[in-house]
């Protein structure tokens, strides 16, 4: 069973959607294309909707199975953050990943015990880790990232001095099976060549009953935002997150919408930090999902001219998403409260 908790533009209140594993064709269409304003939607052999619930549909924008996504490969992400790490905490976070958003996104992770063992995968500069160590002793937290430049920033943060900080690959974690009580990853999945493999690894490293919490972007519906999202990095759809978690073996999968306050719940432009997805590991051991070889071989040589071309285009596309929060902030200041922006 999966529960989808929505609190976006079309639904300012927290609601849940419950789906069984036996989604029929009608149920799949409804699940992929509709957002609920109030109540619970149950799926089974028959589709049942409670009478006290109103429904509004938002057709998901289609996209090809393969996109160029110029910065969704490890080497490109490495160099992207080589420069972005310099201003990440001061320019990027204020527009896309605020402290309020971070704390709200971490709430479903249930970090209630200071002795929990937590891994923060793709922890970068440690901004999300600062939220984790509010609830868990730093000595029990491991920050992992492939970027030494991002991790160098994390090492400078005083509250993280006791954290274990290591370089590593989200799709091939250097932790034993059944290792951690909590797995957290924020702002990392968009750079994974194979998100399903990364979520499978999250399942493996958790103890039985452990919970994974992945915080990431959501796919835009506005045509121009959709174009730049497709050529920059992976912006998953909400239903894709749910599917990846369920395939990996997680139970009680839930998705909570988040976003900057000045967006007033608007999601048509997509969000670099747009949802917090959680799932519980029901059984010990590795994930039941079997996968083939990795999508990307980081040891394989890359044509430097092709790499540079892709990298430049990716940086240009990312500039659009630096401007979007500024645009939304201006609209928030101009448009009176109570009116849509």
Automatic annotation (TrEMBL):
| Start and end residues of each stretch annotated as SAM motif II | 163-176
Instruction: Give positions of region: SAM motif I.
Output: 118-127
Q: Which SUPFAM superfamilies match?
A: S-adenosyl-L-methionine-dependent methyltransferases
The family database entries (CDD domains) matched by this protein are listed as:
AdoMet_MTases
Keyword ATP-binding among UniProt keywords? no
Q: Which residues are in the MPBQ/MBSQ family SAM-binding methyltransferase profile domain?
A: 69-278
Q: Which residues form a coiled coil?
A: none
Q: Where are the transmembrane segments?
A: 307-330
For this entry, list what GO says about its biological process.
methylation
**Keywords of the record:** Membrane, Methyltransferase, S-adenosyl-L-methionine, Transferase, Transmembrane, Transmembrane helix
The record's annotation in Pfam families points to: Methyltransf_11
SAM motif III: annotated segments: 204-217
Q: Which Gene Ontology MF annotations are present?
A: 2-methyl-6-phytyl-1,4-benzoquinone methyltransferase activity
Alphabetized InterPro entries for the sequence: Methyltransf_11 (IPR013216), MPBQ/MSBQ_MT (IPR044649), SAM-dependent_MTases_sf (IPR029063), SAM_MPBQ_MSBQ_MT (IPR031164)
Stated family: Belongs to the class I-like SAM-binding methyltransferase superfamily. MPBQ/MBSQ MT family.
Q: What is this protein called?
A: MPBQ/MBSQ family SAM-binding methyltransferase profile domain-containing protein
């Amino acid at each position: 069973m999966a529960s989808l908790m929505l609190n976006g533009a079309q639904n300012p209140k927290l609601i849940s959607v419950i789906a069984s594993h036996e989604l029929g064709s009608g149920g799949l269409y409804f699940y992929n294309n509709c957002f609920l304003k109030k109540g619970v939607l149950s799926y089974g052999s028959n589709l049942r909707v409670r009478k006290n619930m109103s429904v509004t549909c938002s057709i998901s924008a289609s996209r090809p199975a393969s996109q160029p996504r110029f910065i969704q490969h490890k080497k490109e992400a490495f160099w992207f953050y080589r420069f972005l790490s310099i201003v990440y905490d001061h320019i990027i976070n204020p527009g896309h990943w605020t402290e309020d958003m971070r704390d709200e996104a971490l709430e479903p992770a249930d970090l209630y015990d200071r002795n929990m063992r937590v891994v923060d995968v793709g922890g970068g500069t440690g901004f999300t880790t600062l939220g984790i160590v509010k609830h868990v002793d730093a000595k029990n937290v491991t920050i992992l990232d492939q970027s030494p430049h991002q991790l160098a920033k994390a090492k400078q943060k005083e509250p993280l001095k006791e954290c274990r900080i290591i370089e590593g690959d989200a799709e091939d974690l250097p932790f034993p099976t059944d290792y951690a009580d909590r797995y957290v990853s924020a702002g990392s999945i968009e750079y994974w060549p194979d998100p399903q493999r990364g979520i499978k690894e999250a399942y493996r490293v958790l103890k039985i009953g452990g919970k994974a919490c992945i915080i990431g972007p959501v796919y835009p519906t506005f045509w121009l935002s959709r174009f730049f999202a497709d050529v920059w990095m992976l912006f998953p759809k909400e239903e894709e997150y749910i599917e990846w978690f369920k395939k990996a073996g997680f139970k009680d999968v839930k998705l909570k919408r988040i976003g900057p306050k000045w967006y007033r719940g608007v999601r048509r432009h997509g969000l670099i930090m747009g949802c917090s997805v959680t799932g519980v590991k029901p059984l010990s051991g590795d994930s039941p999902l079997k996968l083939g070889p990795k999508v990307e071989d980081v040891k394989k040589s890359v044509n430097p001219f092709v790499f540079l071309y892709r990298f430049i285009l990716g940086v240009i596309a990312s500039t659009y998403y630096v401007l979007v929060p500024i645009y939304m902030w201006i609209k928030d200041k101009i448009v009176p409260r109570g009116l849509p922006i």
